[in-house]
């Protein structure tokens, strides 16, 4: 058989696999993605993308391609008899929390785009950045050794060939044949129930004027869930595994709408398992699990499903890039499991603590305090060897203003001026290592250490290279005194911080960068 080679092979061309290929290609990593299907699923599935996901897409240049929701948008759900019938009450996702007035956590808002509309955008961008996307291509088998992974692939014409890759990302879904072949088990709430659904098109926009877009249908003898994809398509979900013919489906749709005078087009039906399971490990040697292969989390208004997987891909991409380029030792990749698996478990606990799934908890997340949305979205904490001073005594998540630049958390968003343009602090990050500092003595230290370790670090002087709109607010947000410095990783997370100027900046910075980057020198 013909043999090809690449640095990273991604198996699975859904949202997470495409995001992984895109993030890797953006960093210049040779990447091949294979997907056994010819394109996106006819059932749209996911629709909601969080501000954090939009920050990641914005960094690679996709911001203008994906329309964002209004700043005050929140996903609202109500219990109704039917759309045209009686509306009972609205059910909140998270109890209202007190937030400091005027705080802005992100330059982005969320987005509501059907998965089958978003995937082609990601695919196109990944290809434009240099990723090799191969649809209708199936992984037949694989084996890994000390120096890489060998995969046998079958193309759409039946031709089989071999692909050698330094690393493999398994984004092959909740049933993940790769995870099963590796013998990685899963824990968690487990199977909740099997769902059936029907996707249809109908002119129902008038029922969205209230701002509620998700509906629990509650009639005697008829319980279902109805929501819109915002493009004329709606999905009606049944909490059972009963197969229904077209006539019955039309009858059920009419009951959910509460009217029979509208033209309804049935598009397709779906069947899937609603479950919550977390893999016992997100890595095995040179193979990494991402997305549903690593964690299946039921759809939530908090965006704990696809969005968690997309950030898996982002976390893994910069680490693979550093290792493949030779800047970091392979042990940096151990921090992927250390950082992302606790996040999956945190979200598992949180979704069952909330009202949408409280009845399905079955003892999971008992007495778990609800963490507010801003903390879950922007304030999760990473603990690993790629972070200094993130102790086990710290909580798993807090709002950014409560963290104040704590290492292990996403660097906070503030508006700055750079080269005469207004930018977010987030625009300064996500490409490489960045040290933010005000004192001029940090500059020579960064230059010397970067050259010594073979790692490019950009030193940005506060007040010189970048100018905060409020210098005091900047120092408070990052937890820095006038002489302090904050080291930001290539994924936008704080790796290390010196609150004040240290006695030997070069030595202290060198020790910190060597550890958190797993420097190869």
Automatic annotation (TrEMBL):
Keyword annotations of the record: FAD, Flavoprotein, Membrane, Transmembrane, Transmembrane helix
Essential cofactor(s): FAD
Keyword Cell membrane carried by entry: no
Residues passing through the membrane, by range: 7-26
Residues covered by the FAD-binding domain: 6-345
Pfam families in UniProt: FAD_binding_3 (PF01494), Rng_hyd_C (PF21274)
Keyword Flavoprotein: yes
Protein name: FAD-binding protein
């Amino acid at each position: 058989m013909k043999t090809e080679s690449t640095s990273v092979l991604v198996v699975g061309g859904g949202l997470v696999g495409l995001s992984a290929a895109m993030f890797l290609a953006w960093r210049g990593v040779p990447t091949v993605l294979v997907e056994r299907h010819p394109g996106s699923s006819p059932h749209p599935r996911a629709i909601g993308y969080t501000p954090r996901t939009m920050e990641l897409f914005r960094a690679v240049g996709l911001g203008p391609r994906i329309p964002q929701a209004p700043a005050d948008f929140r996903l609202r759900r109500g219990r109704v008899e039917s759309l045209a019938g009686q509306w009972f009450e609205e059910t909140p996702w998270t109890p209202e929390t007190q937030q400091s007035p005027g705080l802005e956590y992100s330059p982005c808002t969320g987005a509501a785009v059907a998965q089958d509309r978003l995937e082609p955008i990601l695919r196109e961008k990944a290809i434009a950045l240099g990723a090799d996307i191969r649809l209708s291509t199936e992984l037949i088998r694989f084996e890994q050794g000390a120096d890489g992974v060998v995969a046998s692939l079958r193309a759409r014409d039946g031709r089989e060939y071999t692909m050698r890759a330094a690393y493999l990302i398994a984004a092959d879904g909740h049933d993940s044949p790769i995870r099963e072949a590796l013998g990685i088990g899963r824990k968690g709430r487990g199977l909740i129930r099997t769902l059936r659904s029907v996707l249809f098109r109908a002119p129902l926009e008038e029922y969205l004027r209230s701002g509620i877009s998700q509906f629990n249908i509650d009639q005697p003898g008829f319980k279902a869930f109805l929501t819109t994809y915002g493009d004329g398509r709606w999905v009606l979900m049944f909490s059972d595994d009963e197969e229904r013919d077209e006539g019955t489906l039309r009858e059920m749709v009419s009951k959910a709408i509460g009217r029979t005078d509208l033209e309804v087009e049935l598009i397709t039906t779906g069947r899937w398992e609603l479950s919550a399971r977390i893999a016992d490990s997100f890595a095995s040697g040179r193979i990494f699990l991402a997305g549903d292969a690593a964690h299946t989390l039921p759809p939530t208004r908090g965006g704990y499903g696809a969005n968690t997987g997309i950030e898996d891909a982002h976390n893994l991409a910069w680490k693979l890039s550093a290792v493949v380029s030779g800047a970091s030792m392979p042990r940096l990749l151990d921090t992927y499991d250390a950082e992302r698996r606790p996040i999956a478990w945190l979200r598992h606990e949180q979704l069952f603590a909330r009202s949408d799934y409280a009845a399905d908890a079955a003892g999971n997340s008992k007495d778990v305090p609800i963490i507010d949305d801003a903390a879950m979205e922007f304030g999760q904490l990473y603990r690993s060897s790629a972070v200094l001073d993130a102790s086990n005594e710290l909580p798993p998540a807090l709002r950014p203003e409560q963290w104040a630049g704590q290492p292990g958390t996403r660097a906070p968003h503030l508006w700055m001026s750079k080269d005469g343009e207004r930018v977010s602090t987030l625009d300064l990050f996500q490409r490489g290592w960045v040290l933010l500092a005000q004192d001029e003595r940090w500059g020579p230290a960064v230059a010397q250490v970067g050259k010594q370790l073979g790692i490019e670090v950009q030193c940005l002087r506060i007040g010189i290279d970048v100018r905060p709109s409020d210098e005091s607010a900047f120092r408070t947000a990052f937890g820095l005194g006038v002489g302090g410095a904050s080291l930001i990783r290539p994924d936008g997370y704080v790796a290390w911080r010196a609150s004040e100027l240290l006695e030997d900046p070069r030595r202290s910075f060198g020790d910190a960068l060597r550890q958190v980057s797993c420097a190869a020198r």
